Amino acid sequence: MTHRSNAAEAWYPDAPSTAPLFDTPLDLLPPPDLSLPLWRSLAGNLRDTFAAQKLPPLQLTSRPVNVGLLLSDRVSLPWFRTVFTNLGDVISPETLPPLELESQPVDVGELITDQLSHMWYASLLRNLADRIAPERQAPLQLTAKPIVDIIPDSWILLPMWSEVVDSPKVFYPDNPKLAETPRSINLGPVSVPRETEAPPPVDPSAADLLRDLRRSRIRQRIWITLAAAQVAYLTAAIFWLH
Question: I want to staple 122 with a disulfide (CB 3.0 to 4.6 A). Which of 56, 118, 128, 234 is the partner?
Fold first, then answer.
């Protein structure tokens, strides 16, 4: 099979078939068939349908692979064909050759799905076994070199004073209050100012809540009116029809 396709041979009919790949001129322009008028394209399609061009058989160097039934053919099958095929696969499944793996399997232990499917006592026994006789692991091999001086010598690490001082807590007594001097008692009438009640703090969300309640009541009245009108209409229609 040559390196050129049928389209390339149509574009460059004079080029020799034995020419190397790098000798073929590179043309990135669209093919001239792309700008053909509609009637010429229609005539060409009719000619290809009724008198197709005889081409030499295609030579393939690769081996064909049996992929089974194509997806488009599988979708176009009627429903009873798929039912019979499923029954045949259940009763007598197809025997396939053993799978050939080129990679080496890696032992990952028990899968998480299998661990979750165990009963509770299995995990309890496993935890007890790991606590009493833990599994010996191989020493960890590290390729990175340890850092000797993580903290430079020029740094000084000072602990907190609360961690250094170890003494009981001392609570100092309160300052003594001064004795109040006795006041002279005045038995005359004293005008007592009336206590004015401070207005309660205004809640900013109260106005929004009242507005929402007012709107909900209006909507409730509208819906009740519509429901009553529908009931009256249905009742009147029943009596008028009979």
Answer: 118
Q: What is the DSSP letter of 57?
A: P
Query: Tokens standing for 124?
Result: 């309890």
Token output for 57: 């058989």
Quick one: pLDDT band at residue 239, thresholds 50, 70, 90? Answer: confident
| Distances, alpha carbon 95 to alpha carbons 89, 104, 161, 229, in Å | 10, 24, 79, 73
Q: Residue for token digits 């290809």?
A: 48
Residue located via tokens 């790991």: 130
Amino acid at 139: P
The residue extents of the domains of the chain are 6-50
- Give the whole-number percent of the chain exceeding pLDDT 70: 76
Strand, coil or helix: what is 145? Answer: coil
What is the sign, positive or negative, of the torsion defined by CA atoms of 41, 46, 49, 50? negative
CA-closest candidate to residue 110, choices 99, 121, 122: 122
Please state the three-class secondary structure of the chain as a single string. Answer: CCCCCHHHHHHCCCCCCCCCHHHCCCCCCCCHHHHCCHHHHHHHHHHHHHCCCCCCCCCCCCCCCCCCCCHHHHHCCCHHHHHHHHHHHHHCCCCCCCCCCCCCCCCCCCCHHHHHCCCHHHHHHHHHHHHHCCCCCCCCCCCCCCCCCCCCCCCCCCCCHHHHCCCCCCCCCCCCCCCCCCCCCCCCCCCCCCCCCCCCCCCHHHHHHHHHHHHHHHHHHHHHHHHHHHHHHHHHHHHHHC
Q: Does the pTM of the predicted model rise above 0.90?
A: no
The chain-wide mean pLDDT, for the chain, equals: 77
